[in-house]
């Protein structure tokens, strides 16, 4: 085994949206940077096996569904068919082009890329093993951005064929006739939206009382109605007790809230019950960093571990598992390393986006959480059914809901379900960042006809005076 040595200001382990964004920012601040990645391509789970490929599938599903209803808009599209191999090629093209974009950014910012497995030998040394080659990188700072992998359930581990996880689902070469999806969080409802529009008989199972349980209760209820309208079978307050592979696929035994058992026969079972951090086997034991229950690395507000020159970001710490959170954390971490003015992240102001049909997006406190924190709450909402632009799009499901502090009128949370919700939420993020009042949002003139008018109308609703309902 050959070896070599190199020295850098910061060595980053993992080239996902946390790691590669941190690398760019560190280079901008004048630090010498190395990034270590074991995958063939840069981009991490988000780009290679998560955000990007799933959204490509969702876009194909949307176009397929719209094409079948094109006559409603006066456009005749005949003999609409789904070419799933074409869908897969489109997804792959987007992933590869995006990965090459990350490579370009590394070159542009003079970030040194090392392909191989990164291991922390001591608080200032990272080894990179790639086949018979082993390199040692000396670092003033180490940033752990190793991400996460799908979580297996010991009772019915995935086999990649009949019982699958999200990684396997993205690599399917053929669509199943039926699928049971275990877990109605973001991953579960997104895959349900894809599968049902592709013609797959879809059942969505959630142990908790509602789908997207982290979202505002009113939004979850609206989404469940929409999913059922798409002929997705939704089973909430239901546990999966067993999954037995057989010649026809998988026999899935479910137990509902009343203790009643049923067995469903399905071609595939997709386990979408969460992910686990990649914090073991990377050498953290060779530092003073503390790994807590669940595999999370303990950090302070500046993402430092108990080993002051070792930082951690993204899915390996106990913060929202979102690509944009990892990116923001990466920026804070390297700014702190460089002695640059920075500030801890306010996780109450992190947007959450789910790209199912209809889309769901939120930022800030739910109505229930605001009341738990002692706020006297005022709420306003506006249905997309009353929006002229939503009618033009033919997508009138959903609403905008605003949660406001009754005492000071500060906007506490904005929750959206409906067309392009994941784009509309940006305005709400700015409003919360600027600590705007609901009245300021009311007084902000919105262009007509747009979907964003619905945000303004929901603000009017806080005062009991929406204009268009």
From TrEMBL:
GO terms for molecular function: dihydrolipoyl dehydrogenase (NADH) activity. It is an enzyme of class 1 (oxidoreductase). Its main location: cytoplasm. Its EC number is 1.8.1.4. SUPFAM superfamilies: FAD/NAD(P)-binding domain, FAD/NAD-linked reductases, dimerisation (C-terminal) domain. Residues 8-330 form the FAD/NAD(P)-binding domain. Residues 350-459 form the Pyridine nucleotide-disulphide oxidoreductase dimerisation domain. Keywords: Cytoplasm, Disulfide bond, FAD, Flavoprotein, NAD, Oxidoreductase, Redox-active center. It comes from the Bacteria. It is found in: Cytoplasm. Binds 1 FAD per subunit. It catalyses: N(6)-[(R)-dihydrolipoyl]-L-lysyl-[protein] + NAD(+) = N(6)-[(R)-lipoyl]-L-lysyl-[protein] + NADH + H(+). Its cofactor is FAD. Belongs to the class-I pyridine nucleotide-disulfide oxidoreductase family. The active site is a redox-active disulfide bond. This is Dihydrolipoyl dehydrogenase. It comes from Chloracidobacterium sp. N.
């Amino acid at each position: 085994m050959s070896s070599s040595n190199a020295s850098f200001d910061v060595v980053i382990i993992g080239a996902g949206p946390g790691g590669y964004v941190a690398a760019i920012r560190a280079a901008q601040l004048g630090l010498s940077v190395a990034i270590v990645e074991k995958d063939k391509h840069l981009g991490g789970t988000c780009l290679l096996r998560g955000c990007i490929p799933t959204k490509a599938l969702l876009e194909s599903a949307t176009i397929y569904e719209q094409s079948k209803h094109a006559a409603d808009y006066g456009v005749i599209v005949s003999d609409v068919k789904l070419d799933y191999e074409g869908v897969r090629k489109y997804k792959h093209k987007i992933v590869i082009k995006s990965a090459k974009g990350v490579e370009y950014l590394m070159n542009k910012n003079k970030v040194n890329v090392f392909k191989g497995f990164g291991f922390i030998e001591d608080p200032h040394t990272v080894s990179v093993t790639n086949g018979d080659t082993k390199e040692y990188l000396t670092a003033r700072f180490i940033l752990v951005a190793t991400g996460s992998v799908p979580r297996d359930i010991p009772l019915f581990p995935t086999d990649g064929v009949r019982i699958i996880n999200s990684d396997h689902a993205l690599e399917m070469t053929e669509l199943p006739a039926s699928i049971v999806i275990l877990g109605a969080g973001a991953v579960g409802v997104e895959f349900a939206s894809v599968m049902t529009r592709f013609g797959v008989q879809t059942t969505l199972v959630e142990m908790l009382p509602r789908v997207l349980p982290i979202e505002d209760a009113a939004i979850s209820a609206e989404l469940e109605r929409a999913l059922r309208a798409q002929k997705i079978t939704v089973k909430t307050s239901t546990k999966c007790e067993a999954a037995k592979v057989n010649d026809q696929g998988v026999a899935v035994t479910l137990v509902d809230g009343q203790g009643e058992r049923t067995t469903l026969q399905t071609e595939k079972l997709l386990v979408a019950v969460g992910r686990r951090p990649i914090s073991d086997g990377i050498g953290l034991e060779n530092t003073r960093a503390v790994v807590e229950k669940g595999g999370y690395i303990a950090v302070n507000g500046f993402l430092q571990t108990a080993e002051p020159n070792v930082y951690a970001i993204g899915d390996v710490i106990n913060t929202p598992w979102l690509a944009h959170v990892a990116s923001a954390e990466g920026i804070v971490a390297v700014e702190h390393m460089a002695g640059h003015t920075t500030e801890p992240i306010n996780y109450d102001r992190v947007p959450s986006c789910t790209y199912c049909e209809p889309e769901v997006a939120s930022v800030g406190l739910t109505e229930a959480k605001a009341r738990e924190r002692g706020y006297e709450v005022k709420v306003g909402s506006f249905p997309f059914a009353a929006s002229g632009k939503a009618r033009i799009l033919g997508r009138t499901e959903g609403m905008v809901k605003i949660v406001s502090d009754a005492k000071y009128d500060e906007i506490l949370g904005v929750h959206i379900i409906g067309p392009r919700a994941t784009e509309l939420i940006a305005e709400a993020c700015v409003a919360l960042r600027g600590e705007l009042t609901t009245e300021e949002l009311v007084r902000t003139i919105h262009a007509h006809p747009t979907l964003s008018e619905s945000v303004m109308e929901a603000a009017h609703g806080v005062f009991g005076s929406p204009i268009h309902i």
